[in-house]
Amino acid sequence: MQVVSTVAQLRAALAGAPRPVGLVPTMGYLHEGHLSLVRRARQECAFVTASIFVNPTQFGPKEDLASYPRDLPRDLAMLERAGADLVFTPSVEEMYPAGFDTWVEVSALSRRLEGEVRPGHFRGVATVVLKLFNQFRAERAYFGQKDAQQALLIQKLAADLDTGTQVVICPTVREPDDLAMSSRNTYLDPAQRKAATVLYRSLCEAQRLYQSGERDAERLRSAIRTVSAAEPLARVQYVSVADAGTLEELAVVDRPALVSMAVFVGKTRLIDNVLLPPAVS
Ligand code: PAF
């Protein structure tokens, strides 16, 4: 496995690479969720690449950029074992040289859900992902359904700007107790870690009600809040039942919907989501 850290080295390494090329963009501190993307790329692509870059422009001023977990040697070993051929580990200066001044915004999708509570977040995501798409020119790029809004937004970006990279969205990988895997789970102490299972439990209650015929979106939101309220360590930031394509909030679930939530457990902010009708796994 080759490791490069400048765009020039990356271009040289990709010049003779077999096609199709698959890209797994990450911010490092990898877990099984990331590795599932690498393995999927391994099945579908002749050359598997990944990037590790903690992108400062997608963190708000009060967010966890400085404390975001990092462990490059461990990440590289995991990527090698999962079958990656090339890893790009640029510095902040390589990605954002002095004078950097171009930004990408996927307008409507950026304003909803996560975008409403994390202003500027998706501008940072869209900008860095477009840069990575331009740098790698991969045929396919892999993202997790856990960050459902990010995945939708990147699909829209790829379509609107003709990037030529197919965006593949892969299922959320969960711990044995169904907590969605996330690098931020490492912030949780044992009691908080236990409390964090409330996200998926709450979302499953909405799925259960939907399966038994409930279509009133407000009743689903309220059922999610009721289950979450029983967990004293959890503080719900938002609960959403939205059109799965546009992310507009629904009154009636009369089309495919994304049910999503953000919850603070202590200082750690966690997100999770499920689909209605439930995705068949
Ligand atoms: O999902 C992530 O880890 C990041 O948002 C991404 C897509 C790598 C962009 O920095």
Summarize the structure in words.
This protein has helices at about 5-15, 30-45, 70-80, 90-95, 105-110, 115, 120-135, 150-160, 190-195, 200-210, 215-230; strands at about 1-5, 20-25, 45-50, 85-90, 140-145, 165-170, 235-245, 255-265, 270-275. The protein is an alpha/beta fold and about 280 residues long. It has two domains: about 1-170, 3-Layer(aba) Sandwich (Rossmann fold); about 185-275, Pantoate-beta-alanine ligase, C-terminal domain (Pantoate--beta-alanine Ligase, Chain: A,domain 2), CATH 3.30.1300. The strands form two sheets. The chain has a six-stranded parallel beta sheet, with helices on both faces. Helix 8 (about 150-160) links the parallel strand 5 (about 140-145) and strand 6. The longest helix has 16 residues, at about 120-135. Bound molecules: pantoate (PAF). Pantoate binds near residues 25, 27, 55, 58 and 125.
List the helices and strands and how they pair.
Layout: E1 2-4, H1 7-15, E2 21-26, H2 32-44, E3 47-52, H3 72-82, E4 86-88, H4 92-95, H5 107-111, H6 113-117, H7 121-136, E5 140-144, H8 148-160, E6 166-170, H9 190-195, H10 198-211, H11 217-229, E7 234-243, E8 257-265, E9 268-276
Parallel strand pairs: 1-4, 2-3, 2-5, 3-4, 5-6
Antiparallel strand pairs: 7-8, 8-9
Helix pairs in contact: 7-8, 10-11
